[in-house]
Amino acid sequence: MTAPSPASRPAAPPRTRAIASRPRARTPIGDDPLAALIAELAVRAADTHAPQAALESESLTLELTRLDREISATHAAGTGDVAPLVSRRQDLRARRDRAIALAMKQTQPAE
Q1: What's the mean pLDDT when you consider all of the chain?
Q2: Is the pLDDT confidence value at 1 over 60?
Q3: By CB neighbour count within 10 A (0-12 exposed, 13-18 middle, 19+ buried), where does 26 fall?
Q4: Helix pair 32-47, 12-20: axis angle to 10 deg
């Protein structure tokens, strides 16, 4: 089977969303392009996984962003010592960098 042509793709997403939670469900009779698309999406979804280290690095990146804002706000307001915040930021960066390195190692293709 061939993938649906670009002209047929705009009609697929609403129906695809309705079927997404049950990819093995039957598609409407005579809609071979949609059936092929759903089969391809199901295969791709089964192959997709995020290593725990990648999720951890994303979480740490969000925490670093929050901490950078807190440091900026503290500087702007002149309301306190930022040294503990800067120290925490250094620790978070080191943890994030280790998580990224591990995620990259975990996602290396097998040789």
Answers
A1: 76
A2: no
A3: exposed
A4: 50
What is the spatial distance between Cα 43 and Cα 54, in angstroms, rounded to a whole number?
Answer: 22
Cα–chain-centroid distance for residue 86? 28
CA dist list (Å): 7 to 3, 41, 85, 86: 11, 18, 54, 53
Task: List % helix, strand, coil for the chain (3-state, nearest 5).
Answer: 70, 0, 30
Give me 21's structure tokens.
Answer: 């939670």
Please name the residues in contact with 96: beta carbons below 8 A apart, sequence gap of 6 or more: 57, 60, 61, 64
The reply to whether the predicted model has a pTM over 0.85 is: no
Residues 39-53, mean pLDDT to the nearest whole number: 71
Residues 52-94 pLDDT 10s: 888 899 899 999 999 999 999 999 999 889 999 999 999 999 9
CA distance 92 to 105: 20
Q: Show the tokens assigned to 57.
A: 């690095």
